[in-house]
Structure formats: C-alpha cells, structure tokens
Amino acid sequence: MKIIMLGAPGAGKGTQAKQIADKYSIPHISTGDIFRANLKAGTELGKKAKEYMDQGLLVPDELTCDLVMDRIGQEDCKNGFVLDGFPRTIPQAEALDAALAKINEKMDYAIDVDVPDENIVNRMSGRRACLNCGATYHIVSIPTKVEGICDRCGNQVVLRDDDQPETVKKRLNVYHEQTQPLIDYYKKQNILKTVDGTRPMEDVFGAIVEILGA
Ligand code: AP5
C-alpha cells in the first residue's frame, strides 16, 4: 500500500502517518524528519535545508526529490510506504509518478487531512517536538508524562524553530500557493480521499482506516 499524506502544516499528517505505518507495517517517510536528522548530524544537506525551513520556505525540489526516490527504492519499501510531507509541489508529484511508472507502479491513496487555517496557528504553538527521536506532543492534547521531557527517549522536547507564529503564517501561505494544487492533481488521478482533521486524533485515524481497510 503506497500512501501520500496531504494537508497544511500542522494538520496532523505526521501524527496519522506514524499510526498508519504501525498498523500496516510499512515505513513512515517524512521529508521534514529527514531534513531535521541531517541538520542534527551536521550534514551539508541539513545546513542547506535549514536556510529554507527557518524562513518557512520549501527546500528546493532538486535537494528533495532524489533523496525520496532513493528511500522508496530501499528493500523495506517493497510492500509500500507512507509519505509524509512529500510531494509538496507539482514537479515533486510528477517526479514521483515518473519514478514509479518506470517500475510499473503507482500511488494508491492521497489522503488529505483537512484543517482550516484558523486552527493551525494554535495547534503549532502548542506542539512540542523531540529533535532526538522525532516524537511529537501537544501541551494540551498529548502532553509528555514529565514536563519538557520526551516519553520515548528522555531528551528535551522543544518548540521547533519553524513553529514560531510568524513562520507558521508564512508556511501556510507557501502551502496554499505550492502544495494545495496537489489536491486537484490527485483528484484527477482518482486517488484523493479527504478526512476531517479537526476531529479528535482517534476519530481521524478511524476515518483513515475505513478508507484503507482494516
Ligand atoms: P514538515 O516537518 O513536513 O512540516 P509540515 O508539513 O509543515 O508539517 P508538520 O510536521 O508541521 O505538521 P503535521 O501535519 O505533520 O502535524 P503533526 O502531526 O505534527 O516540514 C518542515 C519543513 O521542511 C517545511 O516547511 C519545508 O521547509 C521542509 N520540507 C519538508 N518536506 C519538503 C518537501 N517535500 N519539499 C520541500 N521542502 C520540504 O500535528 C501538529 C500538532 O497538532 C501536534 O502537536 C499534534 O499533537 C497536534 N494534533 C495532530 N492531530 C490533531 C488532532 N486531530 N486534534 C488536535 N491536535 C492534533
């Protein structure tokens, strides 16, 4: 099963993608997590990506596409994968389709987690992320057991640099300009499914499982 998670920044793509990956035993591939891991490791890719991420801009397609194509070509992706944060532009979507067409494959589902902009800024200011293991929390809806400490690995959880309200507004503009057109792109391919992302997380996941099958 090959799945794309679509949605605005903070819509809950990562939250749902992790659960999909667990339930269906497929890898969760988040381009944002890959860039943050590179930044933490001090790689050139991480340094370049940070310049764009901190401004709320997209990392250029040429830095993004090859790394995703490499990743989905790996052995553990044979039975499928869930893409979280990729594609984010029409050229990225076309590159993905072209890479899959070469091996006679195509994406099965594009799931749009729909959340209005008004809800997003609040959600993001409450998000806390562990930059060590990638776990995410929310100070109200999913707090850590010990304040400020990741339940999973014991490192500190922080407000991501790009979750500052001004940067979130920029990310939302970029989303509407460059990523939202993918909704029509996948509608035309007949693989678009929309879920209401304003509902509680368990309900959103329930709606996704209804689409994908138990
Ligand atoms: P990335 O890390 O992908 O960020 P994003 O898409 O902006 O998405 P987020 O991770 O911010 O949010 P999410 O939708 O996963 O929500 P989450 O589940 O955490 O990318 C960061 C940057 O990297 C980009 O801005 C760009 O610069 C660059 N980049 C990445 N991919 C790229 C690409 N392909 N091309 C170019 N550049 C790229 O949930 C958010 C919060 O809400 C959490 O606190 C969560 O607990 C809470 N929450 C989740 N669901 C619910 C719910 N149903 N009800 C209440 N709260 C909820």
Overview of the structural elements:
By secondary structure, the chain is an alpha/beta fold. It has a single domain, classed as Rossmann fold (3-Layer(aba) Sandwich), CATH 3.40.50.300. It is built from nine helices and eight strands. The chain has a five-stranded parallel β-sheet with strand order 2-3-1-4-8, with helices on both faces. A three-stranded antiparallel β-sheet has the order 6-5-7. Helix 1 crosses helix 9, helix 2 crosses helix 3 and helix 6 packs across helix 7. The two termini are 12 Å apart. The model has no long low-confidence stretch (mean pLDDT 95). The site of BIS(adenosine)-5'-pentaphosphate has 35 residues, from helix 1, helix 2, helix 3, helix 6 and strand 6.
SSE layout and pairings?
Blueprint: E1 2-6, H1 13-24, E2 28-30, H2 31-41, H3 44-53, H4 61-72, E3 81-84, H5 90-102, E4 109-114, H6 117-126, E5 127-130, E6 136-138, E7 157-158, H7 165-179, H8 181-188, E8 192-196, H9 201-212
Parallel strand pairs: 1-3, 1-4, 2-3, 4-8
Antiparallel strand pairs: 5-6, 5-7
Helix pairs in contact: 1-9, 2-3, 4-5, 6-7
Bound molecules: BIS(adenosine)-5'-pentaphosphate.
